[in-house]
Amino acid sequence: MSTLTIPDPLPTPEEDSQKLNKAFKGWGTDEKSIIEILGHRTAAQRREIRDAYARLFNQTLVDSLRSELSGDFGRAVVLWALDPAERDAILAHEVLKKKGYRHMCVIVEIACASPPDHLISVRQAYSSLFNSSLEEDIIDYSTGHHSLTQLLVRLVSSYRYDGMYLNEDLVDSDADDLYNAIKMGQQEPPIGLINILSTRSIHHLKASFHRYQQKANGKSIYEDIEGNKNYDHELKSIMKCVVCCIASPEKHFVEVVRNSIVGLGTDEDSLTRAIVTRAEIDLKNIKEEYKIRYKTTVNADVIGDTSGDYKNFLLTLVGSAEP
Amino acid sequence: MSTLTIPDPLPTPEEDSQKLNKAFKGWGTDEKSIIEILGHRTAAQRREIRDAYARLFNQTLVDSLRSELSGDFGRAVVLWALDPAERDAILAHEVLKKKGYRHMCVIVEIACASPPDHLISVRQAYSSLFNSSLEEDIIDYSTGHHSLTQLLVRLVSSYRYDGMYLNEDLVDSDADDLYNAIKMGQQEPPIGLINILSTRSIHHLKASFHRYQQKANGKSIYEDIEGNKNYDHELKSIMKCVVCCIASPEKHFVEVVRNSIVGLGTDEDSLTRAIVTRAEIDLKNIKEEYKIRYKTTVNADVIGDTSGDYKNFLLTLVGSAEP
C-alpha cells in the first residue's frame, strides 16, 4: 500500500507546473515548494504535470529539476519525477556501469518484485533510452560469472503469468526440483532451477517455496541457499535476493532500508531507491515490517541519518510515523 | 508491404457487423459476403468490427464465425478475424500441443520475424488466454532436447532493440563468435551463440550475418548450419529457421508457402498461417520473391491446390496475381 498523501482539492497540472516553474526561478530554488507539490502527487498525477510543464515551458520538468537541484536531494526528486518504468530503466543502466555483481540486486528487484507488465515497460524504456536491450547489456557486462549472467538475463526476460490459477502437481514437482538442485552441491545453479525461478508465476513460486519448506523439515529455501557451501558469495547473495523479492518484497526492502542506515555512513542511493520505488507500492507494509523487526520506525531512522531537503523529501514520501 | 485492398468509401463498423450477422442467418451461411467484408479490412478495421459486433449482438464475432464456419475456410477466417497478437498466441499454443520439434518453427516465426512489441503482445495474450507463460509451456513441452528448448525460450523472451544504431565493433566480434561457435563442431549450440541470436537487434544480426559470410569466404551462416555434421536434424532445422526469419522473413515464408503446396496433398495449416499472418506485413514481397524463385505465382499455386470458399478467401488476401 502507498504512503502518499494527496491534497484535496487537488490543484490542476497547469497550476502545479506554474508553481514549480516559479520555485526554480529567482535567487535560490524553493525546495520546500517542490517537495510540497511533487511529494504529494501519484505517478499518474506526476505524468500529467510533466505533460503540462512541457507544454507550458517548452522544456521537460525532469531537465529543469536536473539543472536546479543537486546532491542526494536532487537525485531523489529526479527519480521520483520520472515515469516509473523510465526510472527503473535508468537505475538498471546505472548498475551496469558499476563494478561488482553485488549491485545486481537492483536488477533482481526490477525483475522479481514488480508486476510483469511493469518489467516489460522497463525493457521498452531501456531500449529507447540506451539503444540496446537490457538483456544484451547484462550479457556484455559479464565478467566471467556465466551462470549468474544467465540467471539475470532469464529473470529480466520473464513475462510471468500474473493470475491466481495454480497447478498443485506442478507446485509440488517444482518444489522437489528446487530442493534437489540446491541440495545437489553444484557450484552453478542448474538450468532447471533457473527455468523455474524465471518462468513460473509469483503465486506459483510462493506456493513452491512453502512446499519446499515442508519437504526440508522447516528449513526455508532462503536458509538452504545461505547454507550452501558450493555457491560463491556473489551467487549466494543474488540467489537470496531473488528468493526474497519473489517470496516477500517488503521484507527485502526492509533489509535494503536498514542496511543503508546501519554501519559507517549512509548508503543514500539505496535508501533513495527503496523509498522512491516502493512509496506507491508497498512502503506502508515495509514500514510495519520494519517496526516489528527493528523496534524502531523508518521515519526515526531517516531522521537520524539524513538531513535538510533530502530528509524532508524522504519523510514526505514515507508519510506518518504511525502506520 | 500489405496485399489488402480496402473499399472506398468504407462502410462503418456497425454496417459491416449488421451485414456479417445477416450472412450468418437464414438457411445457409453467406460465405461470399463474409469474404467480401473481412477480406478487405485491415487489422485496425477488423478490431472496430469486433467491438461493434459485440455491442450490437451480445456475442463475439469470433464465436459467431467459429459456430458458423468449418474446415480450412473456417479456420482461416477465424485466424484472420482475431487480434493479431491473440492469433499468434493461439498458433503458438497449438504447436505446443503437437508432437515434434519440427512444428516449432511457428514459434520461431513469432519470435524472430515480428517486431519486438508484437512479440510482447503475443506473450501478454498467451498469458491471459492460457493461464501460463509462453516460456514455461515451452520448457514443460521439452522432451529432452535441452539446448533446443533453451534456444526457443530465449528467443520468445527477447525484447530486442528495434532501432538502427549499430556498433560496428560488436557486429564484428559477434560475427567471429558465431563463426567459431558453428565451426567448433559441438553437438549443442554454445550459450554464447544463443545469447547473440536472442538478444541482438535484427539490424545488428543482419550486419553480423553479412560479416560472417565475408569471414567464411562467401559461405553464409545458413549454409554452414546446413553443412554442420554435429547438429541433429531437429536442431539444424530450427537454427536454419531462426537465421532465415532474422535475415529475410520473406524468403522464409516463400518456402513455407511453397512447401505447403508441393508434394502429396496440401498442408493447409501452413498455407493459411503464411498468408493470414503476413498479408498485412510483407506478403507483397513474398509474392515477388516467389515469382523470381519458382517462376510461378502464389496465386497460381493457391488456385491449383485449393478450392471453394477457402481458395476464394486466400486469393482475396493474396490480392492481384501481378504484383
Automatic annotation (TrEMBL), chains A, B:
GO cellular component entries: cytoplasm; plasma membrane
Domain of life, per lineage: Eukaryota
GO molecular function: calcium ion binding; calcium-dependent phospholipid binding; phosphatidylserine binding
GO biological process: response to cold; response to heat; response to salt stress; response to water deprivation
Keywords: Annexin, Calcium, Calcium/phospholipid-binding, Metal-binding, Repeat
Record carries keyword Nucleotidyltransferase: no
Classification via SMART domains: ANX
Keyword match Repressor: no
Protein family: Belongs to the annexin family.
Domain observations: A pair of annexin repeats may form one binding site for calcium and phospholipid.
Name used for this protein in its record: Annexin
Natural source organism: Dioscorea zingiberensis
